[in-house]
Amino acid sequence: MKHRARFGSLLFTIFIVATLLCAYAFQDEFKAGDYALTGDLSSIATSLNLTSRAQLILRATHPSLQEKENFNQNCNSHSQEIYVLGCYREDQDRLYIYNVDSSEIPGVREVTTAHEMLHAAYHRLLFWEKNDLNNQLQSVYHQLPTDSDLRVSMQNYRPDEFYDELHSRLGTEVKNLPAPLERYYQRYFVDRQAIVKFNEQYHNVFTELKRETDRLKTSIETKKQAIEAQTKQYQEQKQQLNTVISDFNSRAARGDFSSQTDFNTKRQAIVSRIDKLNLEYDQLKKNIEELNSEIAKYNQSIYHNNELIDQINSNSIPKVDKGLSNS
Questions:
Q1: Which residues pair with 218 in a beta bridge?
Q2: SS3 for 97?
Q3: For residues 114 and 168, what is the distance between their CA atoms, to the nearest angstrom?
Q4: CA 275, CA 123: separation in Å to the nearest integer?
């Protein structure tokens, strides 16, 4: 009788566990049942080429493209310095995307949607799945250059957020992953490289702007130093020439030249120095104009960069950046 009771209790336990696992497995079916992707969200999801599993997760989280006020409230985004593009609310099992509608920043909504979907997918993993996955994620993380943007930014996350965030970042940002991880992400993406490309499109806009800004800044500093040296040399030569002209005029007034030929020779030498100094002045003026042109381009680049950041920062407040001043 005791054996029967134990056996019956074991069967009952197995039945309960099986029932819970079954309910867990089908919970997304229930959540997604009354939700359909429409409008821009439908286009975004199509461009991501998600697997049926990922599509189900996305629909189950009832994703929403939102404007500033609603997005900031739902994602608790209130910092003007750190911009948030999307969030997955685990307490609600809801996904929110900031509606960055800009042709200048392609791919931002797509990669954000994929990133946040992976947060929801990670939340759905069973604990024994996460253990091995976290070890794989950690291994890739340690192979990243210590100064890489991804590794540097990951240092800002709390330990309890680290693997969840790394799971989304690696899956959408790193082009080459070890084969086991590539197979894992095939659960969600038919073509993961397309997701990485969306991320590259979005970040390359800022990378190219920074590269151009840095180039201009270096060029401006070099030109400024050269112009300062040229200006100092010009002023010294001008002062010396003025002294020579003053001495020449005094001698002419005193009739202190041995002959007309001597006078003409000395005068021609001064005229030649004046012509040469005028050429140096014209070149200096041209160099200053080129410098001012580069300063204007630099300031425009800074302004454009700030404009783009304003487009992706839901808490942005228009700023006035004075940039560099002309010489």
A1: none
A2: strand
A3: 8
A4: 79
Helices (H), 81-191: 108-124, 127-143, 149-154, 159-173, 179-185
Sequence letter at residue 74 = N
Which position has the token pair 């993993």? 125
User: Which residues, 6+ apart, have CB-to-CB distance to 136 below 8 Å?
Assistant: 178, 180, 181, 184
List of residues 6+ apart from 317 with CB closer than 8 A: 80
Residue 235 C-beta-side C-alpha neighbours within 13 Å: 6
Please write the tens of the pLDDT for every residue from 237-263. Answer: 999 999 999 999 998 888 888 889 989
The one-letter code for the residue type at 248 is F
Cα–Cα distance between 238 and 214 in angstroms, integer?
A: 36
- The SS3 call for residue 86 is strand
Pair 280, 237: CB distance under 8 Å:
yes
The rounded distance, in Å, linking the Cα atoms of 45 and 22 is: 27
d(CA 185, CA 172): 10
* Tens-digit pLDDT profile for residues 48-78: 999 999 999 999 999 999 999 999 999 988 7
Quick one: tokens of 38? 């429409």
* One-letter amino acid for residue 159 of the chain: P
